[in-house]
Specification:
The complex is a heterodimer of chains A (803) and B (567).
Chain A: H1 2-12, H2 15-38, H3 40-47, H4 49-59, H5 64-89, H6 93-109, H7 111-119, H8 124-152, H9 154-162, H10 173-184, H11 199-205, H12 209-231, H13 246-279, H14 303-331, H15 335-355, H16 363-367, H17 370-374, E1 385-388, E2 391-394, H18 395-420, H19 430-441, H20 450-461, H21 464-480, H22 490-502, E3 504-505, H23 508-533, H24 539-577, E4 582-583, H25 586-593, H26 596-614, H27 619-623, H28 637-671, H29 695-724, H30 727-744, H31 753-759, H32 762-789, H33 794-802
Antiparallel strand pairs in A: 1-2, 3-4
Helix pairs in contact in A: 1-13, 2-12, 2-13, 3-8, 5-6, 5-7, 5-8, 6-7, 9-10, 11-13, 12-13, 12-14, 12-30, 13-14, 13-18, 14-18, 20-28, 21-28, 22-24, 23-24, 26-28, 26-29, 26-30, 28-29, 29-30, 29-32, 31-32
Chain B: H1 2-34, E1 56-58, E2 62-66, E3 72-76, E4 81-84, E5 116-119, E6 122-130, E7 136-144, E8 151-157, E9 163-167, E10 170-178, E11 188-197, E12 206-210, H2 211-214, E13 220-221, E14 225-227, E15 230-236, H3 240-248, E16 259-264, E17 270-272, E18 279-286, E19 289-295, E20 302-308, E21 316-322, E22 325-330, E23 333-338, H4 344-347, E24 354-359, E25 365-371, E26 386-392, E27 397-404, E28 412-415, E29 419-426, H5 449-459, E30 464-466, E31 477-489, E32 492-503, H6 506-515, E33 519-522, E34 525-528, E35 533-535, H7 536-546, E36 563-565
Parallel strand pairs in B: 25-28
Antiparallel strand pairs in B: 1-2, 2-3, 3-4, 5-6, 6-7, 7-8, 9-10, 10-11, 11-12, 13-15, 14-15, 15-16, 16-17, 18-19, 19-20, 20-21, 22-23, 23-24, 24-25, 26-27, 27-29, 30-31, 31-32, 32-34, 33-34, 35-36
Classes of the chains: A mainly alpha (803), B mainly beta (567).
Amino acid sequence: MKLIMFEIYKLFSKKLLLICLVLFFTANSIFLVYTQSNNLEVKTVHTNLSDYENIISKYSDYVPTEAERQLESELKTVEIALQFDRTADNSNGDDLKNLGRITEQYKAENPEEYKKARALHYTKQELLDKQTYLSNLVNQCKSLVDYSSFIGDMDERAQMQTKFSVFAEEGSFSYNNILKTAEDFKDVNNTKLKIGNNFAVENSTTFVLTDLLVFALVFLMCIYIFTLERDKELYGLIRTAKYGRMPLIISKLFVLIFFTILICAVYYSSNIALCGLYSGFGDMTRNIQSCELFMNCNLKLQIWQYLVLWGLSKIITMCVLALFIALIFVLVKNTGMVFVVTAFWVFIEGVLYLAIGSNSPLNQLKYINFLYFLSGNNIFGNYLNINIFSHTVNITLIYVIAMILIAIASVTVICMSFVKSAQITTNNIFTPMLEKFRRRFYKIQGGVSIFKGECFKHYKGSMAIIAIILLVFVAYGNATDDISVVYSSAQESAYSAYIDKLEGELTQEKEDYLRRQQDYFDGLNEELNTISTDMSLSAEEKEIRITAIDSILKTKGAAFEEISNQASYIKEVGERYHITPIFINYIVYKRLAQNPSREWQYFTLLMAVIIFISSDIFAYEHKKHMIDLIRCTKKGKLRLVLSKVMTLSLTTLISYTLIYLPYYINFIKTFGTESLNTPVVFMQDFANIGSTISVNSMIFITAAVHIAEAVSVMTAVAMLSQVLKNNILSMIVGAVIVLFPCLLCMNLTDIRLYTSFQKGSWMWLVPSLIVLCVFLLMICLTIIAFNFSNIEFKAMRRCKNEA
Amino acid sequence: MKKLLSALLIALLLPTMMLMSACNDASKTSDDKLSFDYTTNFQYYYSNLNGINFPVTKSEKGYYVFLPNNYLYYIDRKSQAATPLCNKPNCSHNSVDCNAYFNLFVNASGESANIVQYYDGNLYIVVKDEDAMGNFLGNILYKVTPDGSTREKLIEFKDGISHWLIHKGYFYFSQDKFADDIDSSSVYDSFSIKRYKINNIKSKPEEIFNSKNYSDNLRGTFQFTAYDDYIYVPVLPISEDEIKKQEESGKVTVSTYQEFYSININTIKINQIRNDEGDVCSPFFYNGQLTYLIDNSDTNGKFKYFTSELDGSNPKLLTEMNYGDNLFANESQLYLQNFSEDTDENAATESDGDNVKSLDASFNEKSSFLIPFECSVLNIPQDSDCFIFVQQVDNMNCEIYFVDKSKTESLSGQTVEYKTLLSSVNVEGENNNALSQVDENEKIDTNDNELKNVFENTQNKLYKISTSYDKTLSDEVNSGFSVTLSWAGDGGNYTGNFQILKFKTAANAEKFVKENPLSFVNGQYVAFVSVDKIPVEIKDMLVSIIRNEPISPINSTDFGGEIYSFN
């Protein structure tokens, strides 16, 4: 018991852990509320919660078909009322005529709803809100209506499917899967479903950030529990307890599991609470299949029961994950290598989960995977059977078996390894070889300048050189990658061929050319008509000739239509901005200016590298116990700080160049520089850019913002490194604050700089971002300088104390 | 002495035995030519060399067919029932996660070429690969188990492919190279045909044909086919501008649009299939030989069919057929389909669908039957056991029809008995009855004689006509069809799509017209126009359609300039 208490005390004496607990909890809550408020439906329900719940309580006891009918009638009433609103707001004659026609149509087809709409007195916003949540309820009804018959017929469907020869082979996975699925869904047959407020349960169980944050906390706890004592070489002191080392390791594991459970319980339950508070809990006693997200669940549970089961599964998964991480910590005795091994394992899991298709012969690796177990509602909310050596095994059973096996194996190996082997930090196998090489070829001769010394510590000691070398490979790949356009159709190829001819300013010659092409295609259309009505041709000949002309129209003709549209657009833009219209190759320049995946991937990679290289800049001396050796320089500690920051800036600049530049060089090599000076407004997607900046300028502005962000993140992580005095901890905190959001936003293509250019909001966003970055940079530099100048070294502290 | 006699006997018998064996071998060889293993040979009878391909393939136990919504269905041969190829009873078959869904590839011209093939126990399907932005990244060949549960990625084609097939151990594919210069006389520049050994996909592909090495005039290829030891490649021989020139000068022949080449898959010898008497067209395979029609308009209304060796050599006259009579075959079963114009003679038997005759070896009619679907046979004989048709009923719905060929043998002109295997499968994906199968006893009423007459009347004038119509216009519509017309007007050409609708009652039709001013009405029939103004000639034509009156063809350049306005 005492051991456990000591372990708990050791853990919670680390302020960083407490800070991270609070910080991550706050970040989790903020992000959760933010994502919900970003969802139009959820936001609308939040604003009109009482009205929404009133409608639900009015119709929830109806049979779904009747509820659907009633709700559709209400929705139609609102739509008609909106139509009145549109008519009242419109002054264009032609539009009014059309709107009038539609209104009359409504009156004829929906007389009752028309009358009700006339009697409604809502504002436009209120009507739009009503339309939103009524649509949500109508869709719910549709799902419920389909569900009953779908589940009811499942047995019959299964019997029918097994009659098909491809599925009828007894003992095959398909045959077994069909029968097992029908059997497993029998329990939910005749389940009574009701419409209701599903947002809380759906949003709380699909929020991914919590998993990442809890994982980070688990990792942090493992660092404190397993590595700190090893790094400080204290294991010699705690070598043997009364009954051997076993009680010690069991205490450590107990503390790890206990706090993992506690953290999971707090975080996941807070998610449910927050979602419920924001969008309402609704009736939690409904069957879980009432929520569309869980229609593929075969468990007969109420919503609150499902949430409890879901929470338990998260806790169990995190605990087993914690044990697995602990296993790595105990087996690998070098802290740096632990990080590498863990990152590698996470990477492999990620690749297996994302890259393997659900129908692949290796799909077992996709499903028997921690990422799969943690994602969403995969264990209990989504029925699935997997083929394990031709046996049909349900994913829930696989999960249970996997968790038990991994837990038992991890605990066993951890205990045996801890007890039997010395827990002493060892170097990896490469370090002695590298040392030998270095001693042979590199000798320090005389004094070393501060800058050179910092470079040595940074590139060799902190292994920043490895990051640079890896980036060189990335750069090489980007520079030599074949980025030429692969045409998916002859139309695309024809467009490209047209643009090759027309790219650049729209001259009179080009206008004439366009006119001639238009005449050519008009002629082809005429010819089509002529052939159709020509009675002297046989059907086959007509078919062949029509096909020949059709193929031209479908390819070159369709491409020319695009060119014509583009010509009209650039003329209109030219008039608007009083500049000469210019053709730009849309297919090519879209890749440069408008690739959300590439932009975000590069940015995320840059952030990852910066976090890695910056986290050790100030922590290095503390780690190597050299902090007292760097007491003072000739002109004070400021020069040292500046040298460190310069070294870091140099590496950041090199990293930035290696990540971004090769692609641009490759682009220019492949496509030339023809349109780089063309105003980007000539691309239709950037119609709202509000300026005539060129493609080049847009790229420079984007580059400037990225550089500013990179430098500010670099100083922020350097500051963390100084405050925390530990590179691993700095990396973790930096990753959580910067990297995790980057990964989360990978699929949110709206959060991209190019989107702001498209919307025209770049004019205020770009300066704001740069100002923010400069501000952050100044603050971090100030903190660094202040902290560093106030370091009290041991001798000074001793003197002070004695005084 | 005895020994000498025995030796003499052996000496006499041996050559005789050898000769007999040779004869047997010869007859075995000619029989072998007829034997066809559909599990390892390309199922040529689901496509024709004019580039048409049915999305069907045959396996030992049934058939696989793709619907336009990219879902693969399986038809069981025994039970003659269809199901999506998905072994999950809890799947509603309306999402991309369904086992039956494939992101099918389209070829470089945007057309779906050979889509699925059964080969040696597995299905092979080529799909599109796209990134998150929808940019085309290439095509991927998948090997799929017969129950659809597992798919293995075999080859990624970064440059995409145009057409493909698997035949006798090899995966053959063509790649088109597009013309760089837009003013070049063709969209296409050249093409190549390559192959992989299907059991050794990791190896580099072998190029067996490159049009640049053969002729600068070979631009692109249509879907090619394979039979026995040959690949047959229909090629677009000259540029579109050249086609136009020949048309203007009246020197158009079939070879203006298509030439045919054979490639021996063992020797890689390439041969153009020619005939001195005229241009080769509509080739097919009959009794183990290549058979084709000679397009020669100087033959006084008769067309000659020739057979030749599979490489096109030694052509011999097979038969002569009347103008418009198209022969095609599945191995040893001949069919005939007539594509001639309306004549008084044909009017009596004229009906909606395709009239097909099965012939014996002497070209005498064995039976004749009508296939009542819009998707006509078009020289595609299909499997020897059945016809399978996929018909898109309208924008949202699709049906599968199954015709047992054995039941056509006793027909003389009647409509074939067919089974609807799937009814109203929603091809837009929002599918409430994906597994809706038709009860065997359910009869579908396809006979609305009045509308049929109106439809035929319009169809025979060869306007662009479709049996689909906009069902969202009104719930009171019983049936209908749509017509597309083009005309020249101020500023360019115009195209209008007109809906010819038959309402349940005349009152409903009147009500519709009151609510939709852009329409004409006659009794139950309404012609709905989607534009405000049309030339008077078109207005007259639409009115005569719904009055079921004879329609005069309109030359789109003859419009008098008078405009009918719906105001």
